[in-house]
Design brief:
With 1036 residues, the chain is an all-beta fold. The chain is 2% helix and 35% strand. The protein has a seven-stranded parallel sheet with strand order 4-6-8-9-11-13-15, with no helix packed on it. Strands 14-18-21-23-24-25 form a six-stranded mixed sheet, with no helix packed on it. Strands 1-2-3-5-7 form a five-stranded mixed sheet, with no helix packed on it. The chain is flat. The chain starts with a helix and ends with a strand. The relative contact order is 0.06.
Length: 1036
């Protein structure tokens, strides 16, 4: 049994002597055992019904004032089932009795046992529990679980264990480890050769790692050590040949020899300034050099990035170790690079931050994301400003129907005091005052009005009233009518009104004692009496005498200028007459004078003003008219005057006819120029001369100029054309133009037309044109083609819709498309929308949505009203005490805003408390085996979170208070009532008991149901633990 240890020591010594790394661990095992890990993602069976709680805090009679309580279920969930929750680790409450094949004690305070974690009949989980240090073993086979080494795939070391001894575990097929929090030491040869382990998360308080502890973990690719580690023993991670990255503890002090032997895939590491000793060949492996075919052994790293200074590095024990190379020995110090860490700066609401980064001064100041300087950065990794994280806001002014509200939002980030104010949209909800009612004048209509006290908006409804006659009105008594107004608006109440109807007037009347009036005497209208009742109604009135109604009168004697006349009038009614004197009219003098004696050429005359009626001359109006004088005519010539002799004429007075002779002076010659006449081809000409135009005497004689003769010019012959005649050759005088040899006419030959071509097609309204061309002269003539006329096509009427105009019937030509009868626009009818209806209620993510549709075309419109609902959540309790391993379903969630839902339940300490939450708001909380506190966080889809604190104690939870039970009850005989007390805390393990002080008056059962027996008084005592409350029952 000790052969393996001896073999390991021998191999280790051989490696040191030969400077060749070796593997010192148990032989490989090929068994592949399937292991189901217990983790946060464990695939537990989901319970279909609510789990039956162990404690009685959920008694249905006990939850009256608890905001949320478990619903009763007819079926119970098995105790060994848990509700699946991906956010909560699987927790065993100790009630499951697994059949353990192997278990026992290691020391007085430490135990071990094997469990079948997935119930496949194979004990695959080794659990070490208790308190203190595990012992050292001389060899692997000394450990009591050695026989199960091939089936164990999961190792659990609980929190009480502080140290793991040498040669403790040889578990070839191990796949997962759960470390206790208090382990500070792992001994030599503890877990070497675990080839199936792909990750290693060391205990967080570990200080010392022993030799060969994790050697040969060939599936391990990355290693990150907790900062508690100070010492790593020789070959601790030797032959982890697939290891790529190693992150050392920030407090590492000593690294042993061959710790990472043959880990040739690791290129860069980082060592903190705390390092004091580095063992020989701590990263040892095979390596080759450029330009050399020899194989060397030495440090397989490319660089060691170091947080200290060069002086600090020189103080490290082991930096002088060397390795062979083609150029000689290389010291370990040559691998050191000097790095500086820049701590991260958190981004704030407004300022950028940056991620922590390293600068390697040896690499020329390059920036790296990791301490090992394997992830080079092009620039410092900036964290953008976060922006403000505003809270849900504090409403300082509520919105109403017209005014927006005001909400102030504050940034929730620590150190930021930013606030901003936003408006809250109006909610459109009116607050009406008491309605008022108004009746119209004849009470046939009543109008109800309610006014919003906030915005003064008026809601008005007018309705026709219903009329009921209670007492009919007559001419001798009043009547009574009842009016009723019924409104459709529920805010308005039915209105009633009674109206007194006045007595009816006396409609059936007669006149008595009437008398007619005449021209000269008065009459009487008569008295009015009711024919129905004979009552005297009103007195008549005096009718004045009518007076004579005279005609236009007849003139018996006409008045003159100086004498009066007479006119007689007759009454149309009574034929009486009266006479009226007509005054003398007086003279009517003319405006102009009248000639009494006309004036002549040689004697004067007279004129005066006369009366136009009697022709009498007005006194003082006579005037003299002066003599006119002769008015001679132009005269009659007795002897004409000549150019050289005088003449004589006789003139006559045009008024009186007197004649006289007058002399006419000689006129002298009237010289007229005789124009020169040029000589022509055939006639003589004359020189210029003159003569008297009166007497014809030649004053200057004209002389003869001889004729010049013709100058002949030839006239060219002209050929005849289609339309024009031609001419033969002739001649004429070029001076006078006389034809000397006449040209004879040659008759036109006439056109020779072709068949013609249509040069313009006839249309509906316009004639076309056909053109003919002469074959001789190319002349053209046209001929009209008669217009074709329109071909009418009806344009159907288009019915107007809600949004589009319609058209009346029209027509157009199908050939030219001309509109013959224009279609008139019919205006769109407009939508007939229904009232707005809610299609989806407001949720926490969106406001209320409404729609309405047109009854004519079906078009619908949508709108949003108000705003999204505020995030809300209520829990049945904000804190819960539990005893260790106690279950409860008392924690419930409700009060979520519409649309919101629960997305997760999380416990921040699953070793103290685990929670199995459901989407319906119910949960099962299970305490662990140790006391402590845990916070359960419930997260909603909207992001709202609620934290419930659970305190786990070793002792049972006791009742501290009883509420919810009535203090006084009054019952009738045989009547029953149920008390519903509520315990605080709701997780109390103490049961509720009931006791009656007088069972003859009233009894009470274990469920709190009281039955009244007979008249009297009894006191019901409700007790839980040391707490009691009393209820006085009075039976009547």
């Amino acid at each position: 049994m000790k052969m393996k240890k001896v073999l390991a020591i021998g191999l280790s010594a051989a490696m040191i002597m030969s400077v060749t790394p070796g593997e010192v661990f148990a032989s490989d095992l090929n068994a592949d055992v399937a292991v189901e890990e217990f983790s946060d993602d464990a695939d537990d069976t989901v319970a279909s019904e609510s789990e039956e709680p162990e404690v009685e805090e959920n008694n249905s009679d006990q939850a009256a004032d608890v905001e949320f309580q478990d619903e009763e279920s007819d079926e119970q969930q098995p105790e060994d089932q848990e509700v699946q929750d991906d956010d909560v680790a699987l927790f065993s409450d100790g009630e499951e009795n697994a059949s353990a094949v192997g278990d026992g004690t290691i020391s007085d305070n430490i135990q071990w046992k094997l469990e079948d974690s997935n119930e496949d009949g194979l004990e695959d989980t080794l659990i070490i529990s208790g308190n203190g240090d595990m012992p050292d073993y001389e060899s692997y086979d000394a450990a009591p679980w050695y026989a199960y080494r091939k089936t164990i795939t999961h190792l659990v070391i609980e929190d009480g264990i502080t140290s793991i001894g040498n040669y403790t575990f040889i578990l070839e097929n191990l796949k997962s480890i759960e470390w206790g929090e208090n382990i500070t030491r792992i001994g030599n040869f503890t877990l070497s050769g675990c080839k199936s382990m792909t990750e290693l998360k060391l205990p967080k308080n570990l200080i010392n790692i022993g030799k060969y502890s994790f050697a040969g973990w060939t599936s391990l690719t990355a290693l990150e050590m907790p900062n508690s580690i100070k010492i790593i023993g020789d070959s601790a991670f030797n032959s982890c040949e697939n290891l790529v990255s190693v992150k050392f503890s920030e407090n590492i002090e000593e690294i042993g020899r061959y710790v990472f032997g043959s880990c040739t895939k690791v290129n860069n590491i980082f060592l903190p300034a705390t390092i004091k000793k580095i063992g020989d060949q701590f990263f040892h492996g095979k390596k080759t050099y450029k330009y050399s075919s020899n194989l060397y052994y030495g440090c397989c790293l490319s660089s060691i990035h170091y947080a200290g200074t060069k002086d600090d590095m020189e103080k490290i024990d082991g930096v002088d170790q060397s390795e062979n190379s083609p150029s000689g020995y290389i010291r370990l110090r040559s691998y050191f690079h000097y790095s500086v860490y820049h701590a991260p700066r958190n981004a704030t609401c407004l300022k950028n931050g940056f991620v922590g980064y390293w600068i390697c001064n040896t690499c020329g100041g390059k920036i790296y994301a990791d301490a090992e300087c394997t992830q080079e950065l092009s620039e410092i990794p900036i964290i953008p400003a976060l922006g403000h994280d505003l809270d849900q806001g504090n409403v300082s002014k509520e919105a109403n129907c017209t005014e927006e509200g005001i909400a102030t939002y504050s940034c929730q980030r620590e150190g930021c005091d930013y606030t901003e104010t936003k408006s809250i949209p109006t909610n459109g909800k009116h607050v009406y005052e008491e309605p008022s009612y108004t009746w119209n004048e004849d009470n046939t209509e009543c109008t109800a009005t309610e006014i919003c006290s906030l915005c003064k908006y008026e809601d008005i409804e007018s309705v026709k009233t219903q009329e009921t006659t209670l007492i009919p009105a007559t001419c001798s008594q009043e009547g009574k009518v009842h009016y009723t107004a019924v409104f459709t608006n529920n805010n308005f109440t039915t209105q009633d009104k009674e109206v007194i109807v006045p007595q009816l007037s006396h409609k059936n009347t007669e006149i008595r004692n009437a008398r007619n009036a005449t021209c000269e005497s008065s009459g009487y209208s008569g008295d009015i009496y009711c024919k129905d009742c004979g009552k005297f109604l009103s007195e008549g009135s005096i009718i004045k005498a009518k007076g004579h109604l005279w005609d236009d009168g007849t003139v018996k004697k006409e008045p003159t200028c100086v004498e009066k006349g007479e006119k007689v009038y007759t009454c149309f009614r009574c034929n009486a007459t009266k006479t009226e004197k007509l005054e003398a009219v007086g003279h009517k003098w003319n405006d102009k004078e009248t000639t009494d004696l006309k004036a002549t050429c040689t004697t004067s005359g007279r004129k005066s003003i006369h009366c136009s009626v009697c022709d009498e001359i007005q006194d003082g109006s006579q005037q003299i008219i002066p003599a006119l004088g002769h008015n001679w005519s132009e005269g009659v010539i007795e002897k004409k005057a000549t150019c050289t002799e005088k003449g004589m004429q006789i003139v006559t007075c045009l008024r009186c006819g007197k004649e006289k002779e007058e002399e006419i002076p000689a006129v002298g010659h009237a010289v007229v120029r005789d124009e020169e006449i040029p000589a022509t081809c055939e006639t003589d000409g004359k020189t210029e001369g003159n003569h008297c135009s009166v007497c014809g005497k030649i004053l200057t004689e004209q002389k003869i100029i001889p004729a010049t003769g013709h100058k002949e010019v030839k006239d060219t012959a002209v050929a005849a054309t289609c339309e024009k005649d031609g001419l033969t050759e002739g001649s004429h005088c070029s001076v006078c133009g006389k034809v000397l040899a006449a040209q004879n006419v040659v008759k036109a030959i006439g056109h020779s037309w072709d068949e013609g071509k249509i040069t313009k097609e006839a249309t509906c309204e316009e004639n076309g044109v056909k053109t003919y061309t002469c074959a001789n002269c190319k002349a053209m003539k046209t001929e009209d083609i008669k217009a074709l006329g329109h071909k009418e096509v009806k344009d159907a009427a288009v019915t107007a819709t809600c949004e589009k105009d319609g058209l009346t019937e029209g027509s157009h030509c199908s050939v030219c498309n001309k509109v013959l009868t224009e279609q008139q626009k019919v205006p769109a009818t407009g939508h007939k929308f229904s009232s707005w209806k809610t299609t989806s209620q407001a949720t926490v993510f969106s406001p209320e949505k409404q729609s309405h549709s047109c009854s004519a075309c079906g078009k619908s419109e949508q709108r949003e009203v108000g705003s999204a609902l505020q995030k809300t959540i209520r829990v049945s309790a904000t804190s819960l005490p539990l005893k260790t391993k106690q279950k409860t379903t008392a924690l419930r969630v409700s009060g979520l805003a519409a649309g919101d839902s629960i997305v997760s339940w999380k416990s921040n300490n699953t070793k103290v408390v685990r929670v199995y939450g459901r989407a319906n708001g119910t949960s099962t909380i299970k305490a662990g085996s140790k006391k402590g506190k845990a916070k359960i966080t419930i997260t909603l889809k909207s992001g709202l979170k609620k934290v419930v604190t659970v305190t786990v104690q070793k002792t049972a939870v006791k009742t501290k208070k009883i509420t919810g039970a009535a203090k006084n009850l009054k019952l009738k005989r045989k009547q029953k009532a149920v008390l519903r007390p509520v315990l605080a805390p709701v997780t109390s393990k103490q049961k509720i008991t009931y006791k009656s002080s007088n069972t003859k008056v009233a009894t009470v059962n274990s469920k709190g149901q009281i039955t009244a027996k007979k008249k009297g008084t009894a006191v019901i005592t409700v007790k839980s633990g040391s707490k009691t409350v009393k209820c006085k029952v009075t039976v009547r």
